[in-house]
């Protein structure tokens, strides 16, 4: 157990050191702190590739800078030599130059033209090459900024993908609950007419019993009154539950099927009511 813990801690320290090294390089190149991000093997690979590309680009820029610096030195020496040669010859213009010297000045003029210079002095050449260094550095900084924004966009995309997956999981988990609530609502809607019909039936049955016959059958009246009270309480409870579930839209096909079942149940209740009325009439008939 101790060896495994030491190995894990060593790997964590090594990973943290690699992130620290990469972040230090990016901070120096961007001249600003590295924005926060999630430290994962994927981001480590992306940062390593980005830093390696940056180092390669810096190497190319350094090589070009050294070449340009060498060219500036060569041009400065050539310009000094040409001026000295012209002064030694006492020439104020280039009309009496040798073909090689004239060719050399033509090359300097062509380079000045490519650098958009008005003259071929050493100061102008150095300024132009320095500006090229600044342009290369500006371009590199823009590339690094683009890479930083691209990494942030990838992180945001990964975050939103994770959030979408969590929401889908929550919806999938709630789907059975919503289906059960829909079934409960449909069941309540179907049972309420039946209960109300039974309540009305019992009320009518109470009204049909003559006043002078209620005394001998007081126990039946008491039983019917208790059933009526129980049905009223159930109807109130069903109405309250239906009020809560009314927001869920019912399945039309399921409702029609349940309605057919309710109609059959209503017919059965009607037959039972007729049987009860017959039994009640027989029980009330004089013997």
UniProtKB/TrEMBL annotation:
Keyword Coiled coil applies: yes
Coiled-coil intervals, chain numbering: 221-279
Pfam families named among the record's database cross-references: HAUS1
Cytoplasm recorded as keyword: yes
A biological process from GO: cell division
Alphabetical UniProt keywords: Cell cycle, Cell division, Coiled coil, Cytoplasm, Cytoskeleton, Microtubule, Mitosis
InterPro entries found in the cross-reference section: HAUS1
PANTHER family: HAUS AUGMIN-LIKE COMPLEX SUBUNIT 1
Protein name: Uncharacterized protein
Annotated source species: Catenaria anguillulae PL171
């Amino acid at each position: 157990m101790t060896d495994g813990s030491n190995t894990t801690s060593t790997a964590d320290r090594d990973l943290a050191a690699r992130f620290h090294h990469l972040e230090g390089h990016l901070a120096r190149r961007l001249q600003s702190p590295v924005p926060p991000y999630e430290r994962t093997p994927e981001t480590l690979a992306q940062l390593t590739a980005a830093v390696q590309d940056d180092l390669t680009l810096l190497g190319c820029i350094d090589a070009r800078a050294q070449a340009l610096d060498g060219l500036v030195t060569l041009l400065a020496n050539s310009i000094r030599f040409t001026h000295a040669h012209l002064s030694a010859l006492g020439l104020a213009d280039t009309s009496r130059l040798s073909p090689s010297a004239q060719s050399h000045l033509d090359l300097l003029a062509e380079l000045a033209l490519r650098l958009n210079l008005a003259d071929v002095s050493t100061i102008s050449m150095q300024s132009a090459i320095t500006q090229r260094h600044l342009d290369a550095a500006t371009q590199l900084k823009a590339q690094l900024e683009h890479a930083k924004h691209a990494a942030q966009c990838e992180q945001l995309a990964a975050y939103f993908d994770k959030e979408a997956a969590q929401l889908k999981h929550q919806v999938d988990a709630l789907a059975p609950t919503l289906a059960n609530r829909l079934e409960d609502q449909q069941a309540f809607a179907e049972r309420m007419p039946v209960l109300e019909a039974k309540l009305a039936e019992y009320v009518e049955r109470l009204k049909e019993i003559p006043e002078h016959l209620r005394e001998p059958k007081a126990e039946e009246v008491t039983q019917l009154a208790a059933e009526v009270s129980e049905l009223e309480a159930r109807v109130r409870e069903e109405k309250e539950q239906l009020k809560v579930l009314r927001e869920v839209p019912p399945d039309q096909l399921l409702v029609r099927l349940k309605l057919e079942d309710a109609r059959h149940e209503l017919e059965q209740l009607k037959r039972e009511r007729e049987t009860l009325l017959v039994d009640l009439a027989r029980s009330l008939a004089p013997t």
